[in-house]
Every structure is written in C-alpha cells, then in structure tokens.
Design brief:
Strand order of the largest sheet: 8-7-6-11-10-9
CATH topology of the largest domain: Beta-Lactamase
Number of strands: 16
Shape: rod-shaped
Number of domains: 3
Radius of gyration: 39 Å
C-alpha cells in the first residue's frame, strides 16, 4: 500500500513537471503547483503565497479548493498575518494538528471554511525565500513527514518558476526603460520644443514606474509652475503656479536632493491642502540638476496597485529621467539666452549706428541749415521775412537739440568712451533737468570698467526705470545706487512715488520683462518691492 502511494506521488510530481514546462504564465504555473500539492497530500485546500520584493507581505495568493462564490463571500485575500506571517518571517516547514490552537493564529474572516490540520512549506531557492505553500484539511488526519518532503519538492519547482518570471519581468522592464531613455535621448537632439520634451519624460516615466501622476515644475521668479504632467487629471495641473517656499517641491529644489515620501500626510513639509486637492498619498521628488544647479523638480504620486509606495528602483529610474529633463531645460535656456543675447547685441549695434548717423549726418545737416539761415537773414529785406527766418531758425535749433537728445538715448557716446559711471552721471543730469525730479546718484565703481555687455545692461535698466518713474510714479525724488562687491555688482533704484501693486500689473506694461531678460543674460536676480502710495524699489544683483 505504501509503495502504491509512493508511486502515485512520483507520477503526480512527473505530471506536474511536464505541465509546468508547457505553462506560459506565472499564475498558471502556481495554480498547477497548488493543485498538485493538494492531490499528492490528500489536502482539501491548498494555497500558494508569493512574498513581495520588500519581504514583508504577500503580492500574490493562489488558492485551490475554494470556488469563486466562496472567494466573493470571504472578501480580500490574505496579506501575510497570523500563521501565514510566521512562515514569511521564519522560512521553515510548519505542521500543525489544529490551526486555532496555535497562539500565533489570528483566526479566519467571516464566511471562511473551517480549517484544522495544516502544513506550510517555504518556497526557497539558493537561500532566497520567494513564498510559501499552504495545505489544510488532510483527509484521514494530520500531515506527515512524507507529505512535507513531497511538498518541499513542489515548492522548489515553484521557486524556479517565480525566479524565472521575475528575471523575465526585470529583463522586460530594463528593455522598456532602455528604449524609453533612448527615445528621450534622441528627442533631445531633434526636438526643439521644451514642452514636448518634458511631456515625453512625464509620459514614459509614469508608464515605467506605474504611477498615477507625474509632473515637472520649473521656477518662475519666486514661484513654481507645472510645465508638464501625465496621468490622472494631468490637464488640470499643467500651468498651475504655486509658491516655491511653501511647498515640498520648493524645498526639494532648494536642497537639490531626491526624496521618497511613503506618506505625504506624515511629512511636515507637504502642503496638506494641495496634497488633498491632488488626491496624493505618496510621492517621489527628484530635482532637475545641471552642474550642481537645481532648475526644476520631477514629482511622481501614488504607485498604482494595493501598495501605493514607490521603491528605491522607482527612485533610481526617476533620477535617470530627471537627468535628461534637466539637460532639456538647460539646453532650452541656453538656446533662448543665446537668441536673446544676439537680439540685444543687434539692437545695441543698430542703436549705435543710428546714434552716429543722427549725430554726424542729421546733426551736421541741421547745423548747415542754421548757417545758411544766417546768411539769408543778413540779406533779407523787410521785418516779415526776417521774422519768418527767425521762426525757422528756432525750429531748426529745437530739432537739432531733439536729435542730439535722441542720439544720446539711443547710444550715449560716454558709455563707449568713459564707461558706465560717466554715462549714468550724464543720464541722471539730463533726466533731472528735463523732468524737475531730483536724482541722487551714488556709485562705488570709481574708474573701474565692467564688461561692455554688463555696462550696457545696467545703463538700459536705469534708463527704463527712470522712464517708468516719469510715466507712472509721480515721484519727487529718485536715488540710484551702484555698488561693487567682491564677486557681484548691485544696482538699486528707489523713488518716493505712488508705487503700484506688482500682482495686478503687467510686466511688459512697465518694461519689467525687458529688464528681467537683461538680468537673466548675466545670471543675475531682479527684485521689485512696491506697494500703492509707498514708492518703488528696484534691486538688481549680478554675479561677476
């Protein structure tokens, strides 16, 4: 009888091995193993649990002996508590006469069939635990050592199947990752639209790490703006602007280091109202860094599935995508800056040419007209003719003064010949004489010259600021301060006018956009402090 039983078991093992080689899906393999284990041991119920990669719970739970209707009544599948958790923590075979008598048992959920005798065998391969085989309700009594031995053989087959499936999954994932990274690398070479590049990054990363939402935010002044998003509700987030200082994203940008947050609710830096608005529970925050300079943040929220937390592999992959996004942002900025520099340089060359023509040609022509009028005036007969000639002379003199003033505004010769300080002294003197507004100019550059491009930018910023004061400020007094520090130059223009509300004023209306562009050309910072009836202070700081 024992020989017959042993022969039956060997035949079952052989049939199982053949069936495993013909099965293509992991779940199909595990179902066959659970079924075979129940058959060779005489168990009424069998289950196979696959331990998750973190080693703390079950990611798969395959059952045999319980139909779909019973599954529906029982509810959620177990995650690895009680006796199931014992085998996860201590990967050794376990046989019990009565499950409910073991102090580690946590009982069964409602509608669960009764189970008494128990056999649990770890699924091991080269010392690595992949899961466990569970058997209950053996016909005729308790599970034996022979049952344990044959189930251990089936568990070894299950371990090989699980490892092969994970290796295949890893290889497939790596192939997809490499394909996506290559796609983005190719787009960096061929695609000039930054928005499209960032959209490609968010889309591919979300697919690979299985996230609910991925966004990329870039700084705009003192705020952050979401430039690209992919996933649930992505369209509603693109263009969203939020304060840099009062957000987790802003803090990560300042620190320049990646962070993984398993619970946004427990992170004190997370703005909880914003998290609730986005419906986010977990997050990955990865800064976009080029040459140690953070220039944006890639954010992923909520891994899809039962466990919404991201793992270290997700973080490493997000960092790879962030590197490519950072290169795209840096390249876009360089292209934009180079284009702007060329435009500004072209404008200054044209201003210089026009100023020279106005001074040399138009000015000389008007001077010649004045000399000609003098000769005509000397030979003219009659008071009426002399008065007409005098009126023409005054008109020509006024026009000549306007032409010279325009030539100075276009490109002051003092800026080229004597530098920024001399040009500013002439500018504020002319401004005060023409407007009646007193101006105090204080500089600490003395006779020191700055790079030509930087001197031109400072001059244009002061010129634009004074123009704004005349048009909008109704000020009585203006102060201009230019300070040279060891590694930077700071310009401060302050007036006592009526001020304005920066949040309600268009920058292009006040010429502030052009100022910001000039400052950004030199990697500087422009700060404007203004409020109604309290004047305006403009501060420019540029590194040298």
């Amino acid at each position: 009888m024992a020989a017959q039983t042993e022969s039956h078991r060997l035949r079952a093992l052989l049939e199982t091995g053949i069936a495993l080689n013909s099965e293509l899906t992991l779940d199909g393999v595990l179902e066959r193993i659970a079924e075979a284990a129940a058959r060779v041991t005489g168990a009424r119920y069998a289950a196979l649990g696959v331990i998750d990669r973190a080693g703390t719970g079950l990611e798969r739970f395959i059952t045999h002996g319980i139909d779909a209707a019973q599954h529906a009544l029982i509810g959620d599948l177990p995650r690895g508590r009680g006796i199931l958790g014992v085998l996860i923590r201590d990967a050794r075979p376990l046989r019990l006469h009565e499950l409910s008598e073991d102090p580690r048992s946590v009982g069964f959920p409602p509608n669960h069939p009764p189970m008494h005798s128990f056999l649990g065998v770890p699924i091991l391969l080269r010392g690595v635990a992949y899961g466990n085989l569970y058997l209950t309700e053996k016909e005729g009594g308790d599970f034996t050592e022979e049952d344990e031995e044959v189930v251990t053989l089936l568990a070894a087959q299950a371990a090989v199947a699980i490892e092969n499936a994970r290796l295949y999954q890893s290889a497939t994932e790596w192939s997809h990752q490499l394909e996506s990274l290559n796609e983005i690398g190719g787009a960096l070479v061929t695609e000039l639209d930054l928005t499209r590049l960032l959209e490609l990054v968010t889309q591919r990363l979300r697919e690979l790490i299985n996230a609910r939402l991925v966004t990329i935010a870039l700084p705009v002044g003192e705020e952050l703006r979401i430039e690209a998003a992919d996933g649930e509700g992505a369209a509603s987030f693109v263009g969203l602007v939020f304060p840099q200082g009062d957000s987790k994203t802003g803090r990560v940008l300042e620190r320049g280091h990646s962070e993984r947050v398993d619970s946004l609710l427990e992170d004190l830096e997370v703005h909880q109202d914003a998290a609730r608005h986005m419906g986010a529970r977990t997050g990955l925050y990865v800064p976009l860094v080029v040459r140690d300079e953070p220039m944006g943040v890639l954010v992923a929220h909520d891994k899809l599935g039962a466990d919404q937390r991201f793992d270290s592999a997700d973080l490493r992959l997000a960092e790879q995508f962030a590197v490519r996004a950072a290169v795209a942002v840096d390249l876009s900025r360089r292209v934009a800056r180079d284009a702007l520099r060329r435009v500004v340089k072209g404008q200054e060359l044209e201003r210089r040419r026009l100023a020279r023509e106005l001074h040399d040609e138009t000015g000389q022509a008007l001077t010649s007209i004045l000399l000609g009028l003098r000769a005509v005036e000397e030979t003219a007969a009659g008071d009426g003719a002399k008065k007409s000639i005098s009126d023409v002379r005054e008109l020509v003199v006024t026009t000549l003064q306007d032409v010279r003033k325009l030539a100075v505004q276009l490109r002051p010769k003092a800026l080229d010949d004597f530098g920024l300080v001399a040009a500013l002294e002439r500018l504020v003197q002319t401004f005060a004489e023409g407007t009646g507004i007193s101006v105090d100019l204080e500089t600490q550059l003395h006779d020191e010259r700055l790079p030509e491009e930087l001197e031109t930018s400072f001059y244009r910023i002061v010129q634009e600021a004074l123009t704004n004061i005349v048009k909008h400020a109704e000020a009585q007094h203006v102060s201009v301060l230019l300070v040279r520090r060891e590694s930077s130059v700071t310009l401060v223009v302050e007036d006592d006018g009526q001020g304005f509300d920066p949040s309600a004023t268009r920058e292009d209306g006040l010429g502030l956009l052009g100022m910001r562009e000039r400052v950004e050309l030199h990697d500087g910072k422009l700060t404007i402090e203004a409020s109604p009836q309290r004047g305006t202070t403009l501060v420019v700081e540029v590194p040298l």
